[in-house]
Amino acid sequence: MPKISEERKAERREQILTGARRCFAEYGYEGATVVRLERATGLSRGAIFNYFVSKDALFLELAWRDNQRFVRLWLDKGWDAALREVAAEDPDWLGVYLEITRKFRTDPDFRQAHEARTTEELAPPLLERVRSLQESGSLRGDKTPEQLAGFIGLVANGVVVQLAAGDPIRNMDALIELVGSAVRAPARSRTPSRKRV
Amino acid sequence: MPKISEERKAERREQILTGARRCFAEYGYEGATVVRLERATGLSRGAIFNYFVSKDALFLELAWRDNQRFVRLWLDKGWDAALREVAAEDPDWLGVYLEITRKFRTDPDFRQAHEARTTEELAPPLLERVRSLQESGSLRGDKTPEQLAGFIGLVANGVVVQLAAGDPIRNMDALIELVGSAVRAPARSRTPSRKRV
Question: What is the value of pTM for the model shown?
Answer without folding.
Answer: 0.91
